Amino acid sequence: MKKLYEEINKSIKKYKLGVLKDVAIFIIITLTIHYTYRYWANTTHYLPINSQMTLAHEKMAGIVFDQSIWIIDNILHIPVTIEENRLIRFQNNGFVAINHGCSGLKPILQYLLLMLIFPGPWKHKAWFLPMGIVIVHLTNLFRICGLAVITVTIPEYWDFSHDYLFRPFFYVVIFLLWVWWAEKFRAKSEEHRA
After folding, report:
1. Tens-digit pLDDT profile for the chain (194 aa)?
2. Among 47, 139, 163, 190, which residue carries the largest CB count within 10 Å?
3. 7 within domain boundaries
4. Going by C-beta distance under 8 Å and a sequence separation of 6 or more, which residues neighbour residue 154?
5. Global pTM?
6. Is residue 81 situated within a structural domain?
């Protein structure tokens, strides 16, 4: 087994496939985090920290709701009516509801875990992690506001936009953050070790 591992590493270096190896590691870590989180949320209901996670989702959903309304009203100038249960209703009677799943907590946790697992210097992680959290949060606001625009302009595309456009966009942003990390900071830390 050790010999096979050495041969694989030799081939990776010979054919300069290190980037593909890193992308494979990214995919494996991201999928593992995604499915573990789903199991933890849907099967164990966040045991052993159920109440803390429920509170965190509620708090984040409230923040996303308030900030989304501000952007929709003050920047996009789309008239809205605010209803109970974090529901934003538009003049065409369409609506966007900000619930537990819209809080953005899951992609933030995915980003954090990915960056904590992936190697690199901690002195850079100290600022890169908080910066990435802000970027992932802004991505969530972009998603909610984008869905508001879809609801008002082309509501027939809401389901497609929600499921196939904006949801995967989180992974694109997380991937780009990871590429930035892998290219700029991880690579430099490996050069210093060599």
Report:
1. 677 767 777 776 776 666 777 888 889 999 999 999 999 999 999 999 999 999 999 999 999 999 999 999 999 999 999 999 999 999 999 999 999 889 999 999 999 999 998 888 999 999 999 999 999 999 999 999 999 999 999 999 999 999 999 989 989 999 999 999 988 887 555 544 44
2. 139
3. no
4. none
5. 0.86
6. yes
Question: At 185, phi and psi to the nearest 5?
Answer: -105, -45
Count of residues in the chain? 194
Residues ≥6 apart with Cβ < 8 Å to 21: 12
Give backbone dihedrals phi and psi of 29, rounded to 5 degrees, phi first.
Answer: -65, -45
The DSSP string of 23-68 is HHHHHHHHHHHHHHHHHHHHTSTTTT-HHHHHHHHHHHHHHHHHHH
**Containing structural domain, residue 181:** 49-193
